[in-house]
Fold this protein.
Amino acid sequence: MAKLRFMTLERHIIEEERKHPEATGELSRLLSDLSIAAKVISLEVNKAGLVDILGFTGDHNVHGESVKKLDIYAHDMLFRAMDHGGHLCVMASEEEENIIHIPHHHRLGKYVLLFDPLDGSSNIDANVSIGTIFSIYKRITPDNTPGTLDDCLQAGMHQVAAGYIVYGSSTVLTYTAGSGAHCFTLEPSIGEFLLSHENIKIPSKGKIYSINEGNYKYWHPGLKKYIKYLQEEDAATNRPYSTRYIGSMVADIHRTLLYGGIFMYPADSRNPNGKLRLMYECNPVAMIIEAAGGKASDGKKRLLEIKPDELHQRVPIFAGSPEDVLMLEEFLRNEEE
């Protein structure tokens, strides 16, 4: 691997903004605030087994799912880190049914933040990697007015930045502002995110597929045929593929980004619209995958072109190496004909 510069996240963001004369520096300050929240959440995740924070709160979120204590902590930390900076006009969280208004005594900004505070939280008690996912848009309503639902319900192609933080054996923040995808690893001794993978390029074709095969009986026939195709032995097409499924989207996507292959969370007969959320999970992941040269699809069309109808809309997602995603789309299409 090429030798990397000693580059902090904040310095990298500032240098990227310098390439755009029209940049005001506001986005860099917003991302810096997000990184501070990530550091605090990382500390709490790493000591979760030592304090009274694991387990359920007894409440359920808007999706009817039991809420873990650490989910609420991460949600509150992100809100507290982002509500007062003057960069945002509105926020939305996977844990809240409605949009989150900026308190009236804080200045309103031109950006919109959507986030999944703790993706994969069902794995917390098993010490499996979990993460935070975020998505940033520019507002479409008039400046200096409270943000609205319309500001949040924009197609993913209008994102100005997106990223995720994986809390695992190390804490890794991956982000894109439209020009490449970059990974930074937290160095806890100095409290800084340092550049570890610059301008990532996902392989055009991989050798790993990631999907919950326990749901096989409920899948679309074309998907079943695609999985069987990946499992067949054929040296000419570098098959069979290996299967890797962690069950924490950020961890599965991070591996796919670095090693190639395809991540799949399809619709099925029980969840005809899919299960993952377009605004909090799929759009930001799709932006990062595309920034690295990959492809993200709902099985028929580009994910980033979907115009959302509701805040917590669910969609299928197939993301990863472009050749693998195109092959998957072909299998689904052929079965429809």
User: Anything to note?
Assistant: Residues 26-46 form the longest helix (21 residues). The chain has two domains: 9-197, 208-336. The chain has a mean pLDDT of 91. Residues 193 and 266 are 33 Å apart (CA to CA).
